[in-house]
# Entry
Amino acid sequence: MLEWRRRREPSKAMLYLSPLIAIGLTMLTGMLIFGAIGYDGLRAVTAIFVTPLLEPQRWADLGVKAAPLIMIALGLAIGFRANVWNIGAEGQYVMGAIAGTGVALLTHDMTGWWILPAMALAGIAGGAAYAALPALLKVRLQVSEILTSLMLTYVAVQFLYYLVRGPWKDPDGFNFPQTKMFSASQTLPAVAEGSLVHLGVPLAILLALVAWFVLGKTVAGYAVRVVGRAPAAARYGGFDANRVTWAALLAGGGLAGLAGLLEAAGPFGQLTPQFPVGYGFTAIIVAFLGRLSPPGIVFGALVLAVTYVGGEIAQSTVRLPAAATGMFQALLLFFLLATDVLVRYRLAWKARPARSAP
Amino acid sequence: MTQPPEQTAPSRLALAHVSKSFPGVKANQDISLAVRPGEIHALLGENGAGKSTLVKIIYGVQRADEGQVSFDGRPVEIASPKAARKLGIGMVFQHFSLFDGMTVLENIALGLDETVPAEELKARIKAILDSYSLPLDPDREVHTLSVGERQRIEIVRCLLQKPKLLIMDEPTSVLTPQEVERLFETLRQIAREGCSILYISHKLHEIKALCEAATILRAGRVVAACDPRIETTQHMAELMIGAELKHLQRPAASKQGAARLSVERLDMPGEPPFGTSLKGISFSAQAGEILGIAGVAGNGQAELLLALSGEHLASRNEAIKLDGRPIGLADAGARRSAGLACVPEERNGHAAVPDFSLAENVVLTARHRLPLAPSGLIRQGAVERYAGEVIARFDVRTTGPAALAGSLSGGNLQKFIMGREIGQRPDVLVVAQPTWGVDAGAAAAIRQALVDLAAQGSAIVVISQDLDELLELSDRLCVINEGRLSQARPVAGLKLEEIGLMMGGIHGESHEAEPAHA
# Structure
């Protein structure tokens, strides 16, 4: 008989292995499910998880999809570490894009190097301000940030719909619900001539390095970790939990807002109703897949980017429904949380009780 | 009074050549012992001597690698605590597993293997409380109870199962002398009724007073079996730690200087709904002095510590002064920087973060006074060096600064925490229960370190429920009772009974006096 045995110390190896086990189980389960409903399960899983990695022309797309996921997940991970459960990154992402787009529309007739940085700052400010609402409610009135941040997401999306259909609608846009296209000064440059990879991709990696350093090496990062793990010890050590809550939500909102602006000023080049694609929610999976650590998040974002790109491939080659991507992502989160048990427990054969007296 | 055992009766519990290893440690090697029916048997040993492992084997939490466990003469396999309870083994752990937000009755019901209707269970609990004259209200919520009362819940929970063997793990650590005496009466009554008791402790005079047999463990082996009623305390202690016991070295004449910490009319409302309010607390601690604060748990000690550490702020800045400077409104970090260090009673999750390494736990409190993180950057090298110094100086048994705090035994973690604070040379050190659950050798080391720190001119305040410790350590003693603090009196000439009465006699009496309906 197999049984669970508690480990004396959490296993370092399993901490890093369990996400890989979860990915393996996701692929296996997905294969069985799609096989059972009449698709070629093996081809479906290969298309989603392997093909994007094998075809070099897809790599740029992987980077472009991973960049916003990295940025948002970094902010979420800071919060999750501090026991601040910001579930509304999607709303902050949208609000960041809206604020940056506001600057873009104001500066549409101007040119200059400063326009893009100003848009980025507006994006950060928009996202942070939108996350300040749950922070204020949490610190002042002890309202759960899980509910407030999640509900505010829908408000942000509706606000976007209103803007692109109303005051911000492009007058020359044949009545399509969309803003003007951004000008050259307002569009993210590519890292190399003709490449799809925009400046946001290296910026995301850079931010991951900064977050890694701050979390691991500074007193501020220590404050985040200790407030999350042991609130009483944090208070004893002189850390203010409310300040950490504020910082975590503002950082999370700011990073999500920046990601939103970069997406608007990069791949989209304008705001449309199709702008919210769920990166803010997918980033939750990324944060956990990456063990709430910045290097892990870069890895996790790449895995999720693979499922996005692979999902598109599978739609055309295996004729999988578009919802398949979401299903694989959900399976991944499910197995990720389930395999977490391996960190603190191990499977062992049930030992026979001591009987053999010498 | 116990009956002379019948020679023919088999041992209630017999262990033969029990061994148990963990990766890297032989926790128990070739341990044999026998407990007669109705006997109170002491299991003595330092931290890491293997007491806990042995008890876990008996209670079915761990399984022995080798050896034979017999119960009432029959070889048994105890696969789980449930199986142990079925055999008639009950255990009262050092750390209680109680839900604070639930009532006594609900907690007991949750711990039972079978489902008993609430009314019937209540009747059975009442019967036990009456027959052992234990004061406890089944309808009170656990967070309102003192440590002594919580312990009674665990005892009642065991007695409900009509045990034949009761295991008590360090039961007197936080009780008043009167509470200890009452517990001993209860235990003697339980033993008279035929239940054997395995009593784990390092308080030798208690073992002398209570137990008829003792097995002494050191480094996983049995080093002696003796009759504690005959053996000297000194000799048992030396057998236990394997060396001569060091006596507390005190400076010949304690030269007391100016007041370093002074508290004047400190009021603080308790946290609703059940916290104890501090009412007009005034005291001062002088340079070179150790001031003891005695009291039964739940009389405001926790609140006083939080008020002094800065985790709860006073309403007036002048209520607390450090070397004459008002700090009542300064937060915990500012007070540390100013020279006031505190050690709360709860180690895991309050004084230390169990999921963090020892090195990371150094950063928690030592960053203010030591250059561990100038300008907000943590200097890993300096942090590990300081953690290493603490480990070496206080003989913390661990693999090194990278070990998780939660992996250390309670006594070792306490040594580390005390070392972390003392190593910062605070001007004033306030500690709660400095040696709770710490073995004799380690406790002596911690006390010596406190005395040495005072000798260097710091003022020390020890909040403890362990009167022996306070009498040994303190120059002056006061008592906290229902949030009020008595005048401090010089320890010399103070009688144990007097202090016990100042502490409120036997705690829980007042609840019993209330009509027990509902």
Q: What stands out?
A: Residues 1-6, 505-518 of chain B have pLDDT under 50 and may be disordered. The longest helix of chain B spans residues 177-192. The longest strand of chain B covers residues 25-35. Chain B has 17 helices and 21 strands.
